Structure formats: C-alpha cells, structure tokens
Amino acid sequence: MINKMISKIKKLDAPIVVGLDPMLDYVPEHIKRKAFSEFGETLKGAGEAIWEYNKGIIDSTYDLIPAVKPQIAMYEQFGVEGMVAFQKTCEYAKSKDLVVIGDIKRGDIGSTSTAYAVGHAGQVQVGEKKFRGFDEDFLTVNPYLGSDGINPFIDVCKEEKKGMFILVKTSNPSSGEFQDQLVDGKPLYELVASKVAAWGEEHMGDDYSYVGAVVGATYPKMGEVLRKIMPKNYILVPGYGAQGGQAKDLAPFFNEDGLGAIINSSRGIICAYKQEQYAKFGEQGYADASRQAVLDMKEDLKQAYVK
Amino acid sequence: MINKMISKIKKLDAPIVVGLDPMLDYVPEHIKRKAFSEFGETLKGAGEAIWEYNKGIIDSTYDLIPAVKPQIAMYEQFGVEGMVAFQKTCEYAKSKDLVVIGDIKRGDIGSTSTAYAVGHAGQVQVGEKKFRGFDEDFLTVNPYLGSDGINPFIDVCKEEKKGMFILVKTSNPSSGEFQDQLVDGKPLYELVASKVAAWGEEHMGDDYSYVGAVVGATYPKMGEVLRKIMPKNYILVPGYGAQGGQAKDLAPFFNEDGLGAIINSSRGIICAYKQEQYAKFGEQGYADASRQAVLDMKEDLKQAYVK
Question: Do B181 and A179 touch (CB under 8 A)?
Fold first, then answer.
C-alpha cells in the first residue's frame, strides 16, 4: 500500500491528502436540507448529510489526489450513524482507487491494540468466517504506550500489506508540553522518531517503510531534524493552510528524491467554497471549489518538493 | 459524577470497576449459538453475542459494583455492529445505575478533541436539536498532545458534570519506553501527573476532581509517588489479576481516607467461568461465576484500602 501511495503521488505529481473532516456547519444548506427532509434533524440525518458532502468532494477530486484522510472523531460525534457515514466514506473512496488514511489516533496495549488494528485494517473472525469491520489502508497511531501498543498494529499491517503513521510531533501549539521535553539532551519527539525508524525496518516497502510518522507543518525546523532521523519513513504532515503552515516551510519534510512526505489539507480543501478566493463557486458549487483548491495546492506545493 | 462514583464506592464498600472487554471467544457457546442462529455468523451476530454476554454479567453484578468500563476497541473490531453493542451496553449499564467509564483512550487537538468529547460525553447539535451519540460518564484520554488535547474534554465534562481519566503510567511492560524517560531528573509520567493535578483543579467535585489518572497496578512503587503528586485525583488502576497486579501491591494507590483509587478487573471477572476456581459454575453459569469473582475481589481488595 505504501508502494501504491508513492506511485500515485508520482503519477499525479501531488503529495496531497485531503482531510475529510466534516463538521455539520461545513455542509452546504442544500445537502443538509435534503438529508433532513428524508431522515429528519436526527443523527441519521446528520450522518447522511456528511456522507453526501464527502461524496461530492471525492467525486470532484479523486482524479487529482492519491489519498484521503477521514478524521474519525468528526464521524464518531454522531454516534453509530456517524460511524456508518465513516464506513461509507472509506468504502466509496476505495472504490475510486484512493488510498484511505484512517485518522483514528488509536493506541492501547496487547489484545486491545490488536482489536483496533483488526477493526480498522484487518479481518475479524466470527465463527468460521472473517469480516472487515472498518477498512482503511493506513491508520494513525499514538505512541505513548510504547512497543506494546505499536507491535500489534505492525503485525496486522504486515498481513494486510497496509501501513500506519505514528504521532511524533503534532501540529498544535501545546504539543511541546510533553513532546519537546529533553531526554538525555534531546527532545522526546526525536526519541519517538528513532523508534519509528526502528519499527519501520520491520515492515518495509520498496523504497519506504509501511510505518510512517506524523509531524506538523507548523514545526519546519523540527521537520528537518526528523527527516534525517527517519529517512525511510513517510511523513504525514498536517497543519498546512488553515493551521498556518506554508508551502515554503515544507521543503525540509521532503527527501532529495522529492518524496517522503504527504501534506494534508482539510478545511482548506473541503471548505474552500467558504473562502473569499473561491466564493464565486457558491454553496452549490462547493465540490468544484474543492477541486480548484486542490489544483492550487498542487501548484503551491511544488516550491517545497521540486528540488 | 465523581461524587456519585465515590458515594457508590463507599456504600458498596467496593472500589471496583468491571472491565467489559468481550472477545468473542470469551462468550459462552449457548449465547453465540443463539445469536448466530438469529443473525448468522456475521458482524451483526457477533455484536448481538457480545451484547447478550455483557447483559448477563451486568445483571449478575450491578448491585455489587459502582462502575463498569467497556473497552471500546473490543466493540470497534466488529465495525458498526460492534459500536451498536457498545452503545447498548453503556445504555443498559446506566439503566442499572452503574457509572460507565468509556475506555476509549482518545486524544487529538482542538475541534477534533471536542468532537470526541461531544460524541462520548456530550451532546451534538443537529439543526435545532441536540443528541447524544454515545453516552459515557467518564472517558479515558491520552495526554501525548498536551493541553490542546485535554482542555476540550474538560470543557465538555464541566458542562455535563462528567469526568475523565488521563493516561499517566500504563500497566504494560513497554510503558517505560517513553513514559519513564527522565526529564529534568524525573520520569515523564511524573510530569504528566503534575499536569493532571493542575488540570484537575479546573473541574473539582466535593473531595476529588472530575479529572483522574490511569496508573497500572503493575507499578506499585510508581503508584506511591504518583498518589502524592495527585492527591485529589482519582486513580483508575488496570492490571489487577490477569496482568499480574496483586491486592497487597495496591495499597499505595489509596489515600488515608481509604479512597482515591478504583481497581479494574476485566478477564478476571468476565471470564471467571474459565478459571479452575470457578469451573463449577459451568458455561451456562458464567454470570454467576462473575458474581462470585466480584465478591472474592471485594474481599481481596480490603487488604489494600482498609487502613
């Protein structure tokens, strides 16, 4: 799956992942009206609305981008009906040959981590049969519990030829409270990164590992150091656009081969129609606005990775 | 909710939480047979089986214990149908006046953390109405992202008079890889604990905070130190029983008032019928075996907290 992702990034010349993080107030009125008229102002209505919204964005961008990253919290807030929308979104994105990165930030130990890995990337045994609960290609994982939390994900991902991105340095302002603390003179995130590099060796693709890292665009200097500690690990970079990260700051996240990083944009793409720049598309044209925003992002990013 | 939990712990003389972590191979054959005959060997059949299994355990123990802790991974592995079982389990436990600790170990930033908090402990706005997606009383939360990840949970919990337990020192063997690293001469988990104490002051109950901590029973010496750093924070203690923690090791987790800790047992209770000690109950009597295991645990724990 890492090989597929890289080959799509090369072919499309777009190290881009679109974050499908639908808040209900991002969804255009006409979509909400239709969903609510069918299912009422209910959790089911909300689930239907975000699914239709996502579908529009996928339809208008799938030929431009290698991957989407649904943030599961945005679905989970609507309970079971939200999880139905999450599942439908993943399934539909895969039917369009998109790589699906489940932004689930799970992390637990032993059999519990295995259950998460099986539920999101593997197959669960029920009697004589096997089923897929949710079905993503990559997962994001929290490292706080150490190897016991990571190894079960690696085991399942090996079986399935799937991958993961482990949180190393997150994009938020307070990420330093624990991640930046000095351990033997070096910040904790560097220690986590060196573990990611080691874990990555256990599950290699052709040129890069199936085990990647999350490093926020908002910390480019740290990105430069982390790139060197993890030369073979893909870096998933959130924080571009709405969170303040700029394309010129992204160069350190890429390797000399122009690869090694995939940049996420969520609001910047899925809410493009709410920005002045794309206002001409209107609410009805929200999906076209998203397409234009992807095209613009693609151009913008070239200054970061074309060496 | 922290006041309710403490008053139930006192009244029942039982600082016990039963971990509802149902693996399908824990479920007695007669329950699986019934569920599969109705819904087939499907995800729905699996969801029905674990829900019926939980219901039996709740029915046979609810008058003895203050709380249950469903581990969401064990449900999530069955996809949407598992989440239905999770929701039904939480709802049913609450109908029996049990405090429900959702062991979800979520953690993200800003609006994403808010979405998790809203989805599991709060109310989500849909049009003019508000709904509860999932509905737990306490949540477990991962601290790796710092205050940006914790504050949204505190905000929602304040509104709802609900609470949370933040991972400080987990019970697994590799928890030390990051958590034990020395920061200014002290292990990281102590720094996390001091933050938990500070976060806790923002949301106090009568004697204890709504913000607690998770500290593994397998690390009693660390428990002693952490008890002092977080005098007003309840400690949720996993690792008793199956993971090797013994009652005599639990004393340091309790305060002089005999309170301050709630001990989790999962397999030790829900799979009691598979232990030699409770084999006489048989598979059909699995729920009675669980009841006896709770009674035995209650007696065993007295050496830890009766001062």
Answer: no
- What is the domain extent for residue B251? 2-305
Q: Is A198 on the interface with B (CB under 8 A)?
A: no
d(CA B234, CA B214): 9
User: What does each of the 307 residues of chain A score in pLDDT, given as a tens digit?
Assistant: 899 999 999 999 999 999 999 999 999 999 999 999 999 999 999 999 999 999 999 999 999 999 999 999 999 999 999 999 999 999 999 999 999 999 999 999 989 999 999 999 999 999 999 999 999 999 999 999 999 999 999 999 999 999 999 999 999 999 999 999 999 999 999 999 999 999 999 999 999 999 999 999 999 999 999 999 999 999 999 989 877 778 888 999 999 999 999 999 999 999 999 999 999 999 999 999 999 999 999 999 999 998 7
Residues on chain A touching B183 (C-beta within 8 angstroms): 181-183, 188
- The domain spanning residue B287 has which CATH number? 3.20.20.70
The pTM of this model reads: 0.97
Short-list A256, A241, A243, CA closest to A306: A256
Q: What's the structural domain count of chain A?
A: 1
What are the chain B neighbours of A146 within 8 Å (beta carbons)? 172, 174-179
Helices (H), chain A: 2-12, 29-39, 43-61, 73-76, 79-95, 110-121, 147-160, 176-179, 188-201, 220-229, 267-270, 286-305
Q: Does the annotation count B105 as an active-site position?
A: yes
User: Rounded distance, CA A75 to CA A165, Å?
Assistant: 20
